[in-house]
Amino acid sequence: MTITSTLRIATAALLLSASQAQAENIDVLMSQVFPAGQATYIGYESVERQDIPVSAAVERKYLIVDFRLASGQMASEQLQASVHKVCMALLKDRDLIRQLSDSGYDMVSVAFDRQSQFDCL
């Protein structure tokens, strides 16, 4: 095995472990945003926008963090407050934001149902 091969394997392992750590950070952080019975964290999804050309200077990836409400729906003011709560939890975790940015994400959205997304950053 050459030094180049060893370096490639080490780099791949490092990137994989960084990606797993990022996923664990998001899961831990988002599962603690709401008290039990208010909203349940379902998970996150990475989305690549097809409407932006690959050659564009803008990143094509964004992240959706997904929750389900215990009561099904909430008033507009409550929904805005819930979106704000999720977004602020994300923004306060500077290491996570840096990791997401370094991974090519330029936006995070919050979803409480399958029809609507609300952009954080």
Q: If helices are DSSP runs of H or I spanning 4 or more residues, what is the number of helices?
A: 3
Helix content: 40-55%
Our estimate of the beta-strand percent is 15-25%
| Principal-axis shape | globular
- What is the radius of gyration? 17 Å
Q: How many strands, which pairing sense, and closed or not: the largest β-sheet?
A: 4 strands, mixed
Strand adjacency order, main sheet: 1-2-3-4
Mean pLDDT, all residues: 79
Keywords: Signal
Signal peptide: 1-23
Describe this structure in words.
Keywords: Signal. Residues 1-23 form the signal peptide. This protein is an alpha+beta fold and 121 residues long. The protein contains three helices and four strands; from the N terminus they run αββααββ. A four-stranded mixed beta sheet has the order 1-2-3-4. The protein is globular and about 45 Å long.
